[in-house]
Write a structure and sequence with these properties.
The complex is a heterodimer of chains A (about 325) and B (about 375). Chain A has about 325 residues and is mainly alpha-helical. Chain A has 14 helices and no strands. Chain B is elongated. Chain B has two domains: about 30-150 and about 290-365, Response regulator (Rossmann fold, 3-Layer(aba) Sandwich), CATH 3.40.50; about 150-280, Response regulator (Rossmann fold, 3-Layer(aba) Sandwich), CATH 3.40.50.2300. The chains are: A mainly alpha (about 325), B alpha/beta (about 375). At the A-B interface, helix 2, helix 9 and helix 11 of A face helix 1, strand 2, helix 3, helix 4 and strand 5 of B.
Chain lengths: ~325, ~375
């Protein structure tokens, strides 16, 4: 508790409040027009997805290619619950159902697959994503290939903001907690951390479930933003798009994922009018950035306002850093 | 301090990019196009775009609408519902279009519907067949129209065709139990055929993954004489059924919906020699002798280098119906919607079109006959 009101936290809190009201003001003043708002919602959803996958890939070092599968669990849960309860309660209830289902699914999936490593794990998670999609495609309640339409649109800037901030804060706390430290050690060297007494499978499973739950929440927001959910939306292409955000922003950097999601969202928006060259230009931008920043935009560092504004960390912290070196 | 300036500069750039949209020009009539131009179903979106462009080129060559040139604002939604929503929002609020055309498939159109309703700009899909596309829950979405008939409608047309043209009295129905397409078609066909005085002997179901239909066909053969076999499915199964039925000596006419129309049908049926006495319903046939259709085929082929498909024909009709609505109502989106809704007996290349209460077209369908795997005859059938 002693660090809750540290200078760093207060700066972040202040910035968030200012940012929230600034955007709200711009929306009210119609400087952010409805079109930009839909872009903003898309970016917010992809920030949550990027951050959640970063927990699994960047922090814990487990390459997962089935993230869109967990997103679809949240999206379909919200869509199904909101068929009968088209209001905020329905959305939150759907989110809760999605969270519970994705905990269950990711737990069942994680225990066998996370014993695999590297390429094998990537292929296994790829398979999981496809299995979830095929199950949804064949279930009665998900309405098969036609998907669910006419989902009530409840997204708004405050709602999005709350969940994006919640996702980032929870992830940051996860990263900085004992569990997160254990996960980082697994990424650095699995054998060494096992030798240190870390139960590697347990921590990998925890990280996997954590990421899956956040993805499911992002999926619920997706459903209420875009009116329609269909199985194709949650295929391998979406998993790869989320992976791009993680790699682009820097593996292990949560703020990097957020910045990458914003960057990619804006690039996509600016390219929208050029249907013919959109995909080529998008790929070129990614290639150029990866050539000049192979470690991603931020590498494994975090973007910190305290660092930019020139505040030095407290003496004790600096001392600890010295010791670590 | 230097870093602070850099950050401010970046923020300014981002804001500049977000607000850097010029004012709309009033000299042209802007029509939005929101189609699948890339991605897995770009084969549907691309011919529709070509047809829209052809229609616009023709009307502009004639001096435009009320002296104003028509301009298309084209965005690609890549069969992604999120992009479809973003595009529709941009068309309606930034580009301030008079109306929106698209999308080609149902899923993006279902996502466009609520946006069209919210910003009160109509969306007109040439080929979104899902019944829910023009619906908003249980009521009609007054802002969404379509130019194609919906799937179950083909059941009506085919039942009429079987009763009136083929003079069939006894029918047998086959369909996939795992698709709504088949179930709806089989149901509507059965009802109408019975009303017409016919009798459906049996409905045999199979699943989408089946490739051997001998069990169902043996049952059917054991029923004795019947006049027509209705296969409510796509070419992937219909082709196999045709081949296996002919091999078992079932020689009656086989009829089916637009799913039959596929370049693979002959191969699946075991060769063109098996594809005799086959009829399927569709939106459009190049065999039609109507002058309007032939002119369209000539113009489209000259413009694009390929023959028009049903999709391009539907898109062409959608564009001209919209032009007619704009001509009579001006450029106010609400008045254009009302004018489009009031369309009666519009003579298009896919038939004579009016709208019903659910913004679905009331129009004739074309039933095409296949002999030796080749389209030989097209009959216009009214519902």
């Amino acid at each position: 508790m002693k660090n809750l009101f540290s200078k760093k936290n207060l700066i972040w809190l202040g910035t968030l409040i200012v940012f929230f009201f600034l955007v709200q003001f711009l929306i009210d003043a119609r400087i952010i027009i409805p079109y930009h708002r839909t872009i903003l919602y898309g970016i917010g959803i992809f920030i949550i997805l990027g951050v959640s996958l970063n927990i699994i890939i960047g922090i814990t070092g487990q390459l997962s290619l089935g993230h869109a599968g967990f997103m679809s669990i949240g999206a379909y849960s919200a869509a199904i619950v909101m068929q009968n309860m088209p209001d905020m309660t329905g959305l939150l209830l759907g989110m809760l159902v999605g969270t519970l289902v994705s905990i269950l699914v990711s737990f069942v999936v994680a225990i066998p697959t996370l014993r695999l490593k590297g390429d094998y794990l990537a292929i296994a998670t790829l398979g999981v994503g496809e299995i979830i999609r095929i199950v949804i495609l064949n279930l009665e309640i998900t309405n098969g290939a036609s998907g669910i339409s006419n989902i009530k649109n409840l997204i708004s800037w405050p709602l999005l903001f709350v969940f994006v901030v919640l996702a980032i804060v929870l992830s940051a706390n996860f990263k900085n907690s004992a569990i997160g430290r254990a996960c980082i050690s697994i990424k650095e060297d699995e054998i060494a951390s096992e030798a240190m007494g870390i139960h590697t499978t347990k921590y990998k499973v925890i990280a996997f479930i954590f990421g899956a739950v956040l993805a499911s929440i992002a999926g619920s927001l997706y459903a209420t933003t875009y009116y329609v959910v269909k199985p194709e939306t949650f295929g391998i292409a979406t998993s790869i798009n989320i992976l791009i955000i993680v790699v682009f922003g820097g593996m292990g950097s949560l703020t990097g994922s957020a910045i990458a999601a914003i960057f990619i969202g804006i690039v996509n928006m600016l390219l929208q009018s050029y249907a013919e060259v959109r995909l080529i230009t998008y790929a070129l931008v990614l290639i150029v950035v990866m050539i000049f920043r192979p470690q991603g935009l931020l590498g494994s560092k975090e973007f910190g306002l305290d660092k930019i504004l020139g505040f030095k960390p407290p003496f004790s912290k600096r001392l600890r850093k010295e010791k670590l070196k | 301090m230097k870093r602070l300036i850099t950050i401010l500069a970046i923020m300014m750039m981002v804001l500049g990019a977000m607000t850097g949209c010029g004012p709309a020009e009033a000299e042209t009539i802007k029509i939005g196009v929101n189609l699948e131009l890339t991605g897995e179903v770009s084969v549907y979106g691309t011919p529709e775009r070509l047809a829209f462009q052809l229609a616009v080129k023709e009307i502009n060559a004639k001096g435009g609408i009320d002296g104003k040139q028509v301009e298309l604002v084209v965005y690609d939604n890549a069969y992604d519902t999120a992009k479809a929503v973003e595009n529709a929002t941009k068309l309606a609020t930034v580009d301030n279009v008079v109306a929106m055309l698209g999308s080609a498939t149902s899923a993006p159109t279902l996502a466009i519907g609520p946006v069209a309703k919210q910003y009160e700009v109509l969306a007109f899909t040439p080929s979104g067949t899902n019944a829910k596309v023009t619906m908003d829950g249980d009521a009609v979405n007054p802002w969404v129209f379509r130019a194609c008939f919906i799937d179950p409608f083909q059941g009506l047309v085919l039942a009429n065709f079987a009763s009136n043209t083929l003079n069939a009295k006894k029918a047998v129905v086959m369909g996939s139990s795992s698709s709504d397409y088949a179930k709806d078609l089989a149901k509507i066909f059965g009802e109408k055929f019975t009303t017409n005085g016919g009798q459906v002997l049996t409905v045999e179901y199979y699943t989408d993954t089946d490739t051997d239909f001998s069990a169902q066909l043996t049952t059917i053969k054991g029923l004795g004489e019947f006049d027509v076999l209705f296969v409510a499915d796509y070419a992937a199964r219909a082709g196999l059924i045709i081949g296996q039925a002919r091999a078992m000596g079932i020689e009656v006419a086989i009829i089916g919906p637009d799913g039959f129309e596929s370049p693979d049908l002959n191969d699946l049926a075991g060769g063109a020699a098996n594809v005799n006495n086959i009829y399927f319903s569709t939106h459009f046939s190049t065999l039609s002798t109507d002058a309007k259709v032939q002119n369209f085929i000539t113009a489209y082929t000259a413009e694009t280098g390929e023959a028009p498909s049903a999709l391009s024909a539907l898109a062409y009709d959608a564009a001209y119906m919209l032009f007619a609505a704009i001509e009579s109502a001006g450029t106010d989106p609400v008045k254009v919607r009302d004018a489009l809704k009031a369309t009666t007996n519009f003579a298009g290349v896919t038939g004579t079109i009016s709208f019903d209460a659910f913004n679905n077209p009331i129009k004739s369908a074309v039933v095409v006959k296949l002999e030796n795997g080749v389209q030989v005859e097209a009959t216009i059938v009214n519902p």
